[in-house]
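Let's practice the habit of predicting before peeking. Look at the sequence and jot down your guess about where helices and strands might fall. Then scroll down.
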Amino acid sequence: MKSKTKIDEQLGKKTNPELVATILEAKKKKNWVEVAGLISSPRANMAMISIDRLDKETKDGETIIVPGKVLSQGELNKKIKVVALGFSKMAREKILKAKGETLSILEEIKKNPEAKGVRIIKWTNRKFAQNTKQEVLRNESIRRKRRYLRKNC
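Done guessing? Here is the structure:
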């Protein structure tokens, strides 16, 4: 777990006002400090969790904290409450279709300051993250080449 000093240091680099408010609020509550540490990390280290993984790792009625974004890959067959920094549009629809609930981390901190009955799902598949990062860089390179060709040809 990160120290509050390290969280403050990383907080100074954040520009998204909603993210800053979430980190500040989480840092104030003893039981939410771990979440503050996770979401204050660089965006490259943020969790991106698929619906499929949520379905595999959760039980019906559970409250899950995702310190990052929930993506729509897969299907959800359980009624769960998902609390995250962000949701893709399709992921939110799939969770609601399964009679689940979606909340931002800030909303959950205000509703449940003691963090009772919540479980954090962290990002673990670093190989996928590396492949995704390489794919983004490759796509950026292709876009630069296309711009150059349009401009100079």
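How did you do? The chain has a mean pLDDT of 85.
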